[in-house]
Amino acid sequence: MKYVIVGNYGAQNLGDEMILEGLLEMLKKADNSADICVLKGNEKFPAGIKSGIKWIFGGNKNTKEKVKNCDYFILGGGGLFGSLSQYANIIWGLQAMYAYQNKKPVLMLGQSVGKIKNKYVQKFVKNLFNKSDLISVRDEKSKENLREIGVTKKIVVVPDLAFARENKAENQMPSKDVIIALRQMKDLSQSFKIQIARFVRWLKEEEKMNVKFVNFQTGPVDNDEILHDEIKKMIGDDSIENLSPQSTQEVIRLFKNANFAICMRLHSIITAMQAHTPFVAINYSEKVRNLMDYMGAKENLLEMQNVSFETLKNFYKKTAGPEETKQKLQHLKQNSFRKIEEFIALYLQKLPKK
Question: What are the structural domains of the chain?
Answer without folding.
Answer: 2-166+336-350 (3.40.50.11930), 177-321 (3.40.50.2000)
